[in-house]
Amino acid sequence: MIEERRNREMEERRAAAGGVVIQSPTQTSTETSDDPLAQLGKLKKMLEADLIEQSEFDTKKAEILARL
Questions:
Q1: For position 60, what pLDDT does the model report?
Q2: Which residues contact 68 (CB under 8 A, 6 or more apart)?
Q3: Is 5 or 14 the better-scoring residue by pLDDT?
Q4: Are 42 and 32 in contact, with CB atoms under 8 Å apart?
Q5: Looking at the domain assignment, is residue 55 inside a domain?
Q6: What sign results for the dihedral spanned by CA atoms 31, 32, 33, 35?
Q7: pLDDT value at 6 more than 60
Q8: Is the CB of residue 33 less than 8 Å from the CB of residue 39?
């Protein structure tokens, strides 16, 4: 009985929440690859977090700017 009530409550919550939209990784990467400012911002954050070196940042930045 408790399990049935729990399942019913979960189903009601799912229905009340509505649909869930999940973007595929290709959509997200396509949006990012189309926006050079977003790419440069992401690279800058990676540089500041020491995830990439300055030379890697400069190389990628030059590639992005060359595509403009």
A1: 92
A2: 36
A3: 5
A4: yes
A5: yes
A6: positive
A7: yes
A8: yes
Domain count, the chain: 1
CB 65 within 8 A of CB 36: yes
Integer Cα distance of 47 and 56 in angstroms? 9
Dihedrals phi, psi of 53, to nearest 5 degrees: -90, 165
Q: Which two tokens stand for residue 27?
A: 């959509």
61 found inside a domain:
yes
Question: Which residue segment(s) compose the domain that 44 sits in?
Answer: 25-68
| pTM of structure | 0.51
User: How many Å apart are CA 35 and CA 39, to the nearest integer?
Assistant: 6
| Average pLDDT for 50-64 | 91
57 vs 68: CA distance, rounded Å: 17
Percent of the chain, pLDDT > 90? 35
